[in-house]
Structure formats: structure tokens, C-alpha cells
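Handoff note, outgoing to incoming analyst
You'll be picking up this chain. Sequence as last confirmed:
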Amino acid sequence: MKPETELPETVRQDLGVIGSVEAIRGYYRAPIPDPRDAAASRVCEWVMEAPPALGKEVTAEIGRPTRAALLIYAERMAALSVRLGSEGPLVQGMAALMIASARYDFRDVLMSLAVVKDAAKRIGVDLGPHSRAWPISPISRRGR
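Most recent structure output, in case you need it:
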């Protein structure tokens, strides 16, 4: 991450929590909630609320371990949304998918997207408005 990027220290710390190979080891099967869920959630919220230019800059610099953690987080939030019958975790998972797909080939997120879409179907949520909400994501540009 460039030093001049206007990133709050808390977000930098959260990226550190989820942004290494060691940090994601065991994350997929960890009980929900996990401290990494909270860190990923805060990162997603910050990026989605940041000005578009800053969001693009930050997502352009997210590395593969962080991207992998966000994909895991998306699937974990899909499972949580089905357990709770709630849309909230699902929206967070969709945000994580959009952030993870912003830099890399969008096809890399298709397996996680399938899990999120299945969860949405199970609880009766339309993901359309959420997938079009963030203009820099390749997911949001598909089908237009």
C-alpha cells in the first residue's frame, strides 16, 4: 500500500489481520464469528463508503492473501445469512466479492459468488441492487 493513501490506521490494521497467508490459514472452517470476520467487515464497510477514487486505489493494491480472505469471508457471511434468515451478512459478503474482484479476473470469484447467490435465493433476497451499487467492480458491470 502506498504511504500517501489516505487509509485510516484501523483499516490498515484490519488489512494486516486478514492480509497474510498465516492469517487465512484455518479461516474457512473457523467458527462464526471469528475476529477475522470483524476485520473483513470493517475493511468492506470502509472501502464501500470511501470516495470512489480512493476505493479504486485501495482495491488496486489488495494482494492475493487479502483477496482470498475476502472470498472466504463472503462465503462465511452467506452461511451466516442463511442461519439467521437475514440480509445483512449477505450484503457484506457481496461487498467482499466486489472488492476481491476489482483487481483480478472476475472469474476468480465465481465459486464464491455461487455460494452467495444460493444463500440469497434461500432467504429470498434480490442481489441485483447490491451488485450494481459499486461501479468499480467487474461483477457490477456484468449483464449490462
